[in-house]
Write the structure tokens for this entry.
Amino acid sequence: MALTPAQIEAAIADLGKDLPQTMGVVIQAAADQAIEDMKNRMDFKHNSPDGVRATIFSTLDETTMTLGITMPAHGYFQNFGVEGVKDKGNTIEGIDELTAAAFGSSPGSTFKFGTKNYGPGPGWGAYYTGFSAQDFMQLELFVDQVADYVNQNLEL
């Protein structure tokens, strides 16, 4: 028996009614998993309670469905590397365009302890030796992982 247009309309009237809320939950869960993957790429000797691993989170604005990553400024330094006061041959990469825009700087800029980027420091090891670039914050990979996790969730 074929359905009439009115029956079809009634059957699909509520289809997707709560989809934005549901999609927000799915996207947030996917972003949280991608953040955990990002944390697993970090190779820090010490993981302090206020360190990058403990303070990096995903954010989701459900009104615009805009996904973001939040972390303290020192997280960006550790991602791209920080020069120490005494050059110890660490790998230092210049910051990328997105980070440069967030810091009001220019792409390729580097950070160094004991400068206006990161004020005079105490007598601790990293101040003298610096941090090698970690490259844990790979934004294209993050986006791909979020998309993969969303798709996996929707397939269930």
